[in-house]
Specification:
Largest sheet: 5 strands, antiparallel
Strand order of the largest sheet: 7-3-10-9-8
Number of helices: 12
Helix content: 40-55%
Number of strands: 10
Strand content: 15-25%
Structural class: alpha+beta
Shape: elongated
Order of helices and strands: HHHEEHHHEEEEHHHEHHEEEH
């Protein structure tokens, strides 16, 4: 495949102008327009010759009978990889992003939702976040006596879910032991997830046995064993362990000029609803060192809709990939603006969720 270094200065500059103009207007670019905007003096005939060479290389093509040209996916890739001048966000832009996403007293879910809204608003495309599903926090735990040797554990989460689990308890257990176990757990576990609760209990049961009588300790241990098998950890490959936040779908309709464009957007909407495939985005992000860009058919996930993805992973404090965020839209994205925006947003979200 031809590379930027294989093109002479004249060809590089003409390709750059064709792509930049197309990204800005969406229209085919002709030789007359280029002759007025190139930094070098070239006749329209010379420009047409260069454009013919670029077309032969598969970098541009004529979409109609018009003399104008638009970039192919290969031309866009060459532009992004070798000709694109990526700026940096201004201090005002960084401040705007931070104010919108961070705010005050926002939950992790709120941070991610605001991030997807912000990406959509600034890119004029759809912003998305693929995130792990966050487990509801514990609100209340209570032990209720049942038959001899058995008790019911009632667990209420902040989300209003109620779970009842039957556990085995020592014979002859007194009501006071159940009350003590209930008070002990509520004092320590309220507001914690199941995973956090298991970690806390495993640690405290070793160090604080003296505070509890033997029967109460055995009740708590039985409860801990039950919870350990109730919420199996979801694999990164399990799409049901991920949630998808997409904002700005309607913006994808802003630039629809023809029925074939509308069909591509419809296919993209279908793709966005198919969460089983979205876990692939995490795999793509884990291979990335920062922002990755997929143009059209380069990304099998959204290839049918002819869309581009600009994505970046966000990480936890241990530098483990937690999720991925980015922008999806037509291949005619403003890459120079979106790339630094996605990069900064991913870093900011990583800091905020930690």
């Amino acid at each position: 495949m031809v590379a930027v270094k294989d093109l002479n200065e004249r060809s590089r500059e003409i390709l750059r102008r064709v792509v930049e103009t197309y990204l800005e207007t969406g229209d085919p670019v002709g030789s007359r327009f280029l002759s007025r905007h190139l930094p070098m003096p070239l006749s329209a005939a010379s420009i047409r010759n260069v454009m013919s060479d670029l077309e032969a290389l598969g970098l541009i093509f004529s979409p109609h009978t018009s003399a104008g040209r638009v970039p192919t996916e290969a031309g866009l890739r060459m532009f992004v990889d070798g000709l694109l001048e990526i700026g940096d966000l201004s201090e005002d832009e960084r401040g705007q992003i931070e104010r919108q996403i961070a705010g005050s007293h926002k939950s992790v879910e709120d941070v991610l939702d605001e991030a997807s809204k912000m990406l959509s608003g600034l890119s004029h495309a759809a912003g998305f976040v693929v995130a792990p599903k966050f487990e509801a926090a514990l609100k209340h735990i209570e032990f209720v006596a049942m038959d001899p040797g058995r008790a019911l554990v009632v667990i209420v989460t902040d989300g209003g879910e109620v779970e009842n689990r039957v556990i085995d308890v020592p014979m002859g257990l007194t009501p006071s032991a159940l009350v003590e176990a209930t008070n002990y757990l509520n004092a320590r576990l309220r507001g914690k997830s199941f995973e956090e609760a298991k970690t806390i209990l495993a640690s405290e049961m070793e160090t604080q046995k003296a505070e509890l009588n033997e029967l109460t300790s055995r009740v708590i241990s039985s409860g801990l064993a039950t919870w350990s098998g109730a919420k199996p950890a979801a694999s990164n490959d399990d799409p049901l362990s991920k949630s998808l936040i997409v904002r700005g779908r309607s913006r994808l309709l802003d630039d629809v000029h023809a029925m074939e464009d509308l069909e591509r957007v419809r296919l993209l909407f279908d793709d966005l609803e198919n969460k089983r495939d979205l876990v692939q985005l995490l795999g793509l992000a884990e291979q990335a060192d920062g922002v990755r860009i997929f143009i059209g058919s380069e990304n099998k996930l959204f290839s049918m809709s002819g869309s581009s993805l600009v994505i970046s992973p966000y990480m936890d404090s241990r530098q483990h990939v937690v999720g991925v965020l980015g922008v999806i839209g037509p291949t005619r994205l403003n890459y120079a603006r979106i790339i630094p925006m996605v990069d900064y947003t991913a870093k900011l979200v990583g800091r905020l969720i930690n």
